Amino acid sequence: MTKRNFILNALSKKCPRCQEGDLFIAPFEFSKPLNMPESCPVCSQKFEPEPGFYYGSMFLSYIFSAFFFLGIMGVCIIVFKFSLNLSMFILLLIAAATYFFFLRMSRSIWINIMIGYDPDAKKKTQTKSFGY
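Given the sequence above, the corresponding structure tokens read:
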């Protein structure tokens, strides 16, 4: 497999090391929005290398959602000339609909920033499992 762009890999929510394994367990459950396996099923990369690893993703989520919501408010008020109350109501609906998207996406981007791509990750895991 050829190396994918960092952004495309983060958007597809794949393992940053091998770019094949899924970061999140499917199907999505509302009761467990951040349900992740302990490690990648393909290359065995731990998805939580240390306690509090995803603390930084909280800041990413805040930054991305704040600019996105600022844009929504701007469009509602400036372009459509909605009142502030109606614009806020629309914003709250959109925020509720996109909450889990921003939550998962910020985790995916964070782990892709912190852990680099290794083209031989899958091979290394296969040789370890055979005891070589």
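Residues 84-114 form the longest helix (31 residues). Try to locate this feature in the token string yourself.
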